[in-house]
Amino acid sequence: MIRISSFNIKNDYKNYNLNKTKEIYNYLINNNIDILGLQEVYSKLDIDLRKLLKNNYNYNGNYRFLLMLNIINEKNPIITKYPILFNKTYHMPHLPSLLNRIVSLNIIKYKNYRISIYNTHLDYKYESVKLRQLKYLYKLIEKDNNLIILMGDFNLKNNREIFNKFCYLLEKRGIKRVEFNDRTFKESRYHREIDHIFLSNEFKVIKFEIIKNLDISDHYPIMVDIEL
User: Fold this and answer.
1) Mind listing the pLDDT tens digit for each residue in 29-61?
2) Could you give the number of structural domains in the chain?
3) Closest C-alpha among 74, 45, 44, 49 to residue 59
4) Which of 6, 82, 172, 219 has the greatest count of CB atoms below 10 A from its CB?
C-alpha cells in the first residue's frame, strides 16, 4: 500500500514558530505517509523541516524565485521515502499575476514501476491564468509515459468549467480525480474541495479522507491509500 497526502500549510511567514514544522513532521510520521506534497512552504519553515527530516526522507522542490528568501517566495516540495530517479521544478505561466507559479516533479521507483509525482499550486485570482496553467500541466503529463500522481491546491472546485475540462482530458489519458466531495479550504461555504489528487487508473484506491484535526493551516490535508 502507498499512502499519499497533499497539504497547503498556509504561508504565515511573519508569525512562524518551530511548533508548526513539528506538527507537519508529526503528521507525516504518525500517519505513516509515503508521499507528501506540500504547498506554500516558505524559507523559515523549509529550513527547519529539512533538519527534522534529515536522512530519513527524500525532500525535493525549488522556490518560485531564485534569489529571495522572504514572505512571497514559496516552494511545493515533495517528501517521500522512495528512491528518487529524477526531480525538477517547472515554472508555469503566471502573468498578469506577479507571483510565479511552479510545479514540482519527482520520478520515483516503486517495485518495477516508475511513478511521476507532480505537486502544484495554481493562481488564486485570474481565471485566464488558471486556464493557461492547467494547459501547461496537461502538456507535461501528456508526454509522460510513467504512472501519474498529480496533487496540489488548484484553487478550483468541480463546478468550474475549465477544471472539469481538464479532468475530462486527464480521464481520456487514464488518470482520474479522487472525489472527496467536501471542503478542503476551511473558510469555504460549500462542500467542494479545491485541493485535489489525481491518479492513473492502474492504482486501486483503498481509502481516502480529509483530515480535520490539524489547526495549523486554513486548509485541511487530504489523504489517499492506494495499491498497485
Assistant:
1) 999 999 999 999 999 999 999 999 988 899 999
2) 1
3) 49
4) 6
